[in-house]
Amino acid sequence: MTYVFPPKAPTTLPIRGSGRVFPINRVYCVGRNYAAHAIEMGHDPGKEPPFFFQKNPDNLLPDGADFPYPPMSQDVHHEIEMLVTLKSGGDNIAAHVALDCVFGYGVALDMTRRDLQGQMKKLGRPWEIGKAFEHSAPCSELVPTDQIGHPAKGAVWLKINGEMRQEGDLNQLIWKVPEMISYLSGLFTLRSGDVILTGTPSGVGPVARGDRMHGHVAGVGDLRVSVA
Ligand code: MN
Fold first, then answer.
1. Bridge pairing between strands 80-86 and 102-109
2. For residue 131, how far is its CA from the centre of ligand 1 (angstroms)?
3. Model confidence pLDDT, tens digit, residues 122-134
4. Domain ranges of the chain
5. What is the pLDDT of residues 3-40, one digit of tens each?
6. Strands (E), 31-175
7. How far is the CA of 199 from the centre of ligand 1 (A)?
8. How far is the CA of 210 from the centre of ligand 1 (A)?
9. What is the pTM of this model?
10. What is the pLDDT of residue 36?
11. What is the distance in A from the centroid of ligand 1 to the CA of 105?
12. Ligand 1 centroid vs 124 CA: distance in angstroms?
């Protein structure tokens, strides 16, 4: 078979302490997974079923890169999140075995054109233009579970220009990682290379050109990206 043009190589993320890279398949994101963030966005923090949206695999941006301020928005927000990456998948995965699918963890930003997302919400339209744009998912290197296990508590924070903006703890996740994987696998066939952004704590807000963002997830690592 001959391609009519050369297919794009997969987007990859580096793995700490390894010369190997992790190829990305799908990028799932969980909405409103910290009560304090649900409240700041004007929603009831009760435990409703989780909901998901997706970004494109080639929306990822590596640690240390510049995040170009995207077009068509005057209100681009940061959302710091823990990233879960899968080495295996399937359908209807039970929560008690779901962690067996996890390859490792990372630190990610779910960059959001909040003004466009807000317009789409109001019109009952899909969120892609607010969420799934170029470079909208900066991600750190990945740390495999054989180095750190499965972090379930510890600080999640984001500083901008050295000033604390978002602060939460992994133990505040409404839907825990095994529950997220289990629920998602009932909707989609999960597979190796899939990644999940697990939701953001409160304190989301706008970024400006020149801002230096520094995200941290305790026991996982750091992510540093500047707005260009
Ligand atoms: Mn998010």
1. antiparallel
2. 9
3. 999 999 999 999 9
4. 12-226
5. 999 999 999 999 999 999 999 999 999 998 998 888 88
6. 52-55, 60-62, 66-67, 76-78, 80-86, 102-109, 112-113, 137-139, 143-144, 155-160, 163-169
7. 5
8. 22
9. 0.97
10. 87
11. 16
12. 18
